[in-house]
Each structure stands twice: as structure tokens, then as C-alpha cells.
Amino acid sequence: MNCKECGAKIPKGSMYCKKCGKDIQLVPDYNYLEEDVLSNIIQEGVKENLPDEEVFSSASANHHSKKKKRIWMIICSVCIVCVIIAAVVYFVKKDIAYKQANSYDYQFEKGQEYLLQQDYTAALVYFENALNLRPKDMEARNQIIHIYLETGEDTAAVSLLESMIGEDERNAEAWKNLIDIHASNEDYEELQNLARQVKDPDILELFADYLVAEPIFRPFAGTYNRPLDIEITCAENCTIYFSLDGSNPTENGSPYEESIQLKEGEIQILAAAKNAKGIWSEISKADYTVRYEVPEMPVVIPSGGNYTEGQLITIDVPIDCVAYFTWDGSEPTENSAKYTGPMEMPQGNQVLSVVLINSYGMKSRINRINYIYMP
Q1: 273 contacts 300 by C-beta, under 8 angstroms
Q2: Hey, which CATH number is domain 216-290, 2.40.128, 2.60.40, 1.10.101, 1.10.1060?
Q3: What pLDDT shows up at residue 30?
Q4: Which of 5, 111, 206, 211 would be a feasible disulfide site paired with 22, CB 3.0-4.6 Å?
Q5: What is the overall mean pLDDT for the chain?
């Protein structure tokens, strides 16, 4: 036997070629050509022993069977490949969808994309998905608020803004948006309610255009013993409305044009100011009482009694009062003699009667003093 690699003769029983070192193949290689030749020889032999018609029929059937089998194999192979491709595509798409569903950036970008197209429904879905991935994210919430405002969903926008302010009371942008919503709806009363809750002066400044200062009364409320001219003032470009019967001045008030006079008694004034936008201030209230006090009984010096030497008689007259007197025991009035200064004590047994009358016509009790002057 010769080596198939180098052609050298190989001794019997040797397992390799001593010249090239190639292993000896004891079993010969399978030869497809030899198989086909052998198969043809066998078939030719069979054909020689069969009638012509049977040989043709057998050959045709055999050829048809092989062709059909080959077609089915092709179909099965194509189906398997299709199934594999479909499975790969499905799992790839599923993986991509999962990653996109859990990607804040993807959800936010898609939201912006639909927002530019003014497809607010789709944009809202993506921004809400982004917010679910980052619950505290301000950008996503601001975009959602923008959509609410564009679609007229003010209630939803207010609710979201209030929650943002609840998390951060110094969130100026959220306050501005909330103020704008109420202002556009002319809900000035709610703006005033919100302003009462604000403690930060910088945030309170945002309400400046929607708050009107309360009217101020001069003089201040209180009890007086003189007539009053009550003035009410407010900020510029505002109109004051007031009432004296306890009714709401924003509903039934009269425009304030001149001071309110109170000569005597009690009065309660309610007043509110309204600016050019129609925004009302809080209602101011002031209670006044004008009660004229009766002058005290006048003090006369010296006191009554017996005197042998001449004396000067003086009467203590308080401010806003005039003293009137008589010497004949009659009751003094505004028509009696008016005290202007110290006066000499007259001789004899005399009775001095003195009364004080203030500028409001109120009289004191009469003070009667009996002087007996005998020099």
C-alpha cells in the first residue's frame, strides 16, 4: 500500500508513513460518485428484468417522490427560518419597548415631539410617564401644566401647582402660574385668600398687582367728647365705598367724597377700596362714639363763710367751658354775667351761684356759696 500523501510505499502493519509521517487511513473515504454509479448499475439491472412500462412508471414515481420531498424540505426550512426571524424581531422589539418605557429621556423627548405637533393627548401621556419615572421632576410637571392650560383644564393645573407649592413654598414659578390662572379667571377673592397664606415677602410681592390696601380712618376709631370729621384714605387710583348701616360696602356702599361728620352718639363705618381692575380690598371697620361729658361743678375760692376783710373770689374754668354767675340766688344761664377774672366779695349776706356751660351747651351743676362779709 502506498501513502496517499507522498506516494511512498508503506510496509504492512504500519500505522503511519515513515517518509511524511501521515497517518494511514484504514477505512477508505466515502465516494458519492461511486455510490451513484453503483445505484445506476443496480437500477439498470432491475430495469432489464422489468417490462418497459413498469420501468418507466417506477422511474417516474421515484422522480416525483424525490421532487415532492425536496419541496417539502424547502418549505419546512423557510418556515423554520421565518419563525426564528419573527422570534428574534419580537424579542428585540420587546426589549426596546421595555427600555423605552423605563427611560425618562425617551418619554420626555416623545412628549416634546407630540407637544410641537400640538397633539396634547399623546404629549400628556408621555410627560406623565416621565413624571412617574421621576416624581419630583420640575420640567415634566411644568410641561404638564402647560398642556393643562392649553386645553383649558384649569382645575387640574391648579391642583398640580398647589402640590408643587406644598413641596416648596418658595417656588416662584409655580406661584406665578397659579396667580396667572386665578387672575385670568378674575378670581380675585381667591388671590386674596392665597396672599394671606404667604409669609415670604418676595413671594408676596408677586401679588402686588392683585392686592388693594385697606382704607385708613382719621381720626382713629374710639370715644370722643367732641364732634368729629372722619376722613377715609386709600392708595392712589382707588375708589372708596362706605356704609353706615352695617351693610357690606362692596355691595351696598356709597362712594366716599367728603368727610363724615359725627356730632353726637355712636356710629360704625365699614369701608373698602376698589382699584381700576375692579379688585376690592379687605373691608375696614371703625367704631366711633361721641359722648359729650357734662362739666364738673365749678370750683370757687374762697369757700363760703363769714369774713371781716375783703376777699377776691376766683372760679376755676376748664378749657372749652364758660362760667356764668348771679348774686341774687337765681339760677345762672348763658344770659347771666360771665366770669372773666377774679372779682371782689360784696358786703353783706350774699349768695353766689355759678354754673359751667361747655361749647356743646352742656351745663354743670350749680355751685351756690353763701358769703357774709361784715367789715
Answers
A1: no
A2: 2.60.40
A3: 46
A4: 5
A5: 86
